[in-house]
């Protein structure tokens, strides 16, 4: 059995074009992910197929080419730019004689290395166990028979079954702990709701500049780096707006195309802050030529977590890199649709603050009207 990669290893990127519209962008992104994981990329092997090969994903000829390049570059690891099945992973490791991981595993590894809070660590472990449970067969193929012989007679279950049972127990424990976290967050949100405090969440594609914008607005010191998934743990701060009061601003984990479903499911407690927000600031890297695809990818995840009906402003960040001008765009109803700014230089930040102040005033008025309507109604359950 091959050892789990620990970063810093020589890695080979394998990518098969099966006709996806964003194939080249996906490949570029995988290389950035590999660098974010601390891997040394020593080469890339590309190929084209109408559909993935059931046994090897890449096909026998292409796998032989990859194997030759593994030998030439002395690669320790091959990273596939796709989600490959447990059987394909097992077959590829046998053919290539080195460790093989897919895009999902690489993203999970990055998350495991970046999570700092106890909540984030629990969520990453839960996602990893969900992913690992489908791949246990790869590591225990030589033990898939009943224990027997002198000193080897066991409780009547295979090593594979034992591992699945232990993983199941650990998953149950993690879910219990995360449920407590969600409960604590729920209490905090209800407290803000009673005090009629507006909640705003920053969402967006990874490396769009959410944390830089968050720091500029709140004067916080959230970790910022020019790399994918620099932020994993949700950070929440109060933002005071002169003349109108305060609101709560949250910086959340970035999204990515093909974000593993197990990861979205495990990070439900973190993403709950997004689901309960009154307004979403969808931060977009305006200088990225794939920005429209990134917007679609983020909206897809928002729909998956039930946050697609929350009012949203597009925040076109990094305008200093694409010669755009700061300003506010409105829709046909005269409401804010987008804000153009540069979190790095500060251009356009005042316009965003003014827009948030107006939104905060509107929120307060709406909350007061709702409370007044409630007070004027007869509620027999309160008698």
Q: Which class best fits the helix and strand makeup?
A: alpha/beta
C-alpha geometry = globular
The DSSP helix count reads: 12
How far apart lie the N and C ends?
69 Å
Strand content: 15-25%
Strand order in the sheet with the most strands:
6-7-5-8-9-11-10
Uncertain regions: pLDDT < 50 for 5+ in a row?
A: 1-6, 138-156, 371-375
- Overall pLDDT metric: 79
Can you count the beta strands? 11
Major β-sheet, in short?
Answer: 7 strands, mixed
Helix content: 40-55%
Provide keyphrases for this structure.
alpha/beta, seven-stranded mixed sheet, four-stranded parallel sheet, 11 strands, disordered N terminus
Note down, in words, how this protein is organized:
By secondary structure, the protein is α/β, with parallel strands linked by helices. The protein is built from twelve helices and eleven strands. It has helices at residues 23-36, 60-73, 86-96, 103-114, 118-132, 136-139, 159-194, 210-218, 261-266, 268-275, 291-304, 349-376; strands spanning 10-17, 40-48, 77-80, 99-102, 198-204, 235-241, 245-251, 279-285, 312-317, 327-330, 336-340. A seven-stranded mixed beta sheet has the order 6-7-5-8-9-11-10, with helices on both faces. Strands 2-1-3-4 form a four-stranded parallel beta sheet, sandwiched between helices. It is globular and about 65 Å long.
């Amino acid at each position: 059995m091959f050892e789990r990669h620990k970063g810093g290893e020589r890695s080979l990127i394998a990518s098969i074009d099966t006709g996806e519209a964003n194939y080249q962008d996906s490949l570029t992104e995988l290389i950035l992910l590999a660098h974010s994981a601390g891997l040394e990329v020593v080469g890339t092997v590309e190929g084209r197929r109408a559909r993935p090969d059931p046994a090897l994903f890449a096909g026998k000829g292409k796998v032989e080419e990859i194997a030759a390049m593994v030998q030439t570059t002395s690669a320790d690891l091959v990273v596939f730019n796709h989600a490959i099945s447990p059987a394909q992973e097992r077959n590829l490791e046998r053919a290539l004689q080195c460790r093989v991981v897919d895009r999902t595993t690489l993203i999970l590894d990055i998350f495991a290395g970046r999570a700092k809070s106890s909540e984030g660590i629990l969520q990453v472990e839960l996602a990893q166990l969900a992913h690992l449970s489908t791949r246990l067969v790869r590591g225990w193929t030589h033990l898939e028979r009943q224990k027997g012989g002198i000193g080897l007679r066991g409780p009547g279950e295979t090593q594979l079954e034992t591992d699945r049972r232990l993983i199941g127990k650990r998953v149950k424990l993690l879910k219990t702990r995360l449920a407590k976290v969600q409960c604590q967050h729920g209490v905090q949100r209800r407290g803000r709701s009673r005090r009629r405090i507006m909640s705003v969440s920053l969402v967006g594609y990874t490396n769009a500049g959410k944390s830089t914008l968050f720091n500029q607005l709140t004067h916080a010191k959230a970790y910022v780096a020019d790399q994918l998934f620099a932020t994993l743990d949700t950070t929440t701060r109060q933002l005071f707006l002169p003349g109108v009061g305060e609101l709560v601003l949250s910086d959340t984990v970035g999204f990515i195309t093909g974000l593993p479903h197990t990861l979205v499911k495990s990070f439900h407690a973190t993403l709950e802050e997004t689901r309960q927000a009154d307004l979403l600031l969808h931060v977009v890297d305006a200088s990225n030529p794939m920005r429209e695809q990134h917007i679609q990818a983020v909206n897809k995840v928002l729909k998956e977590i039930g946050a697609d009906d929350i009012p949203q402003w597009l925040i076109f960040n990094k305008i200093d890199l694409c010669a755009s001008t700061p300003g506010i765009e409105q829709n046909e109803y005269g409401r804010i649709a987008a804000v153009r700014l540069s979190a790095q230089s500060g251009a356009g930040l005042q316009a965003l603050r003014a827009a948030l102040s107006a939104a905060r005033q509107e929120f307060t008025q709406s909350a007061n009207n709702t409370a007044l309507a409630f007070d004027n109604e007869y509620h027999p359950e309160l008698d």
